[in-house]
Amino acid sequence: MAEPQFTPRVLSGIQPSGGLTLGNYLGALTRFVDIQDAGTHECLYCVVDLHAITVWQDPADLTAQTREIAAAFMAAGIDPTRSILFNQSQVPEHAQLAWLFNCVARMGWMRRMTQWKDKAGKNSEEASLGLFAYPALMAADILIYHATHVPVGEDQRQHLELTRDIATKFNHDFGREFFPITEPVIGGPAARVMSLRDGTKKMSKSDPSDMSRINLSDDADTIAQKFRKARTDPDPLPQTYDALKDRPEARNLVDILAGLQGKSPEAVMGEVAGQGWGQFKPYLAEVAVETMGPITAEMNRLMADPGEIDRILGDGAARAREIAAPILKDAYELVGLIRS
Ligand code: AMP
Ligand code: TRP
After folding, report:
1. Ligand 1: residue whose CA is nearest its atom 5
2. Is 120 a residue whose pLDDT tops 70?
3. Which of 80, 87, 109, 293: disulfide with 47, CB 3.0–4.6 Å?
4. Of all residues in the chain, what percent are helix, strand and coil, respectively (each to 5)?
5. Is the pLDDT of residue 3 over 70?
6. pLDDT at 206 exceeding the cut of 90
7. pLDDT tens for residues 280-337?
8. Is 202 a catalytic site residue?
9. Contact call for residues 254 and 274 (beta carbons, < 8 A)
10. pLDDT > 90 in the chain, percent
């Protein structure tokens, strides 16, 4: 077996556990597109349906949401001829490598994951075994392609550290630098978009309050209303971004504007310093509608032809398997499993 060469390769995934939020859009999608367009890395983007079912999903909704996320990827600018776009369950090598990682990762590592603690809550005895093993499958998503870089929002940092730990332990246990030690790509003003109702919680598709988030499917009126009702403190915007340090809700809205405009938050503050909320919020809503409106429209257009989406996902899965299959074969061989 030749010593593997790690080509610059990016993999990231989004769960089809609900519609996409502005957090997914700014924290993940726009950055996926930037990396694709830079042309420096081979890019694989997947809809992680096997991760979604670690908590209950209605089967018909799961199918529809998988197509919706695929449409959102394309509407945001992922080109399925330049990037490989697919859904995870169509590439069985992910689950096959995940089993090896279930045997490499330790219970204690998994128990420390904050996403596990948050999602399982007090009733962890009732949580699925899949939810506990979720990070090992995520490590497999990445390492089955020997991906070198993974763009994600801030909330995924801990899972990426675990991915590095799994790669390191596997390499050590089997005496080969077989898996790369993947670098997270986290950054920008919108790496952590917060809830519109509570500046200390991340904006999430699973938050019970729809007012806490902007959905990619929201129309212009809904977006304007959600920003109008977004929680803030009574003070107007200060002169500098630094002065927002202890004002999480206000800072979040400035970060969102910066993310939407592709500017630094400091540059945005230069334009909006001193404004009251009555002036700032409608402006923010207008920028959000202008940026997201065309994407939502394109997403709806693509979703009108589910057959075409399925064809694109099938094609992506076939291309993904070409990369994954030989890596899985080598990994099995290293472990000592016979595959004739
Ligand atoms: P998920 O919806 O949990 O599958 O997340 C998909 C991607 O969106 C991951 O890279 C997350 O880190 C990112 N993401 C989710 N919520 C947010 C948020 N509120 N702010 C920034 N990024 C986010
Ligand atoms: N756990 C990620 C999230 O909730 C989704 C995900 C699954 C992922 N597999 C991945 C992200 C691989 C990056 C790479 O956001």
Report:
1. 14
2. yes
3. 87
4. 60, 10, 35
5. no
6. no
7. 999 999 999 999 999 999 999 999 999 999 999 999 999 999 999 999 999 999 999 9
8. yes
9. no
10. 94
Instruction: Name every protein residue with a CB atom under 6 angstroms from any ligand 2 atom.
Output: 11-13, 15, 48, 51, 138, 141-142, 150, 152, 156, 159
Q: How far lies 32's CA from each of 12, 25, 82, 298, 325, in Å?
A: 8, 10, 12, 18, 24
The yes-or-no answer on residue 119 being catalytic is: yes
Question: 183 - beta bridge partners?
Answer: 149
Could you tell me the pTM of the whole model?
Answer: 0.94
Distances (CA, A) of 121 to 132, 188, 203: 12, 30, 18
Quote the ligand 2 centre to 134 CA distance (angstroms): 9
In which band, very low, low, confident or very high, does the pLDDT at 340 lie, cut at 50, 70 and 90?
A: confident
In a domain, residue 184? The reply is yes
Same domain, 173 and 222: no
Asked if residue 219 and residue 97 are part of one domain, the reply reads no
Same-domain pairing of 150 and 108: yes
- Alpha carbon distances (Å) from 144 to 92, 222, 323: 11, 41, 8
Judge whether residue 4 has pLDDT over 80: no
Residues 174 and 318 in one domain: yes
Asked if the model's pLDDT at residue 1 lies above 90, the reply is: no
78 burial type by CB count under 10 A (0-12 exposed, 13-18 middle, 19+ buried): buried
Q: Give tens-digit pLDDT for 153-173.
A: 999 999 999 999 999 999 999
Find, among 76, 79, 83, the residue nearest to 43 by Cα.
83
Helix (H) or strand (E) holding 336: none
Domain that holds residue 74: 9-191+305-335
205 included as an active-site residue: yes
pLDDT bracket for residue 2 (50, 70, 90)? low
- Residue 225 belongs to a domain with what CATH number? 1.10.240.10
**Nearest atom within ligand 1 for CA of residue 48:** 4
Distance from Cα 338 to the centre of ligand 2, integer Å: 30
15 with 125, same domain: the answer is: yes
Q: Which two tokens stand for residue 217?
A: 């499917």
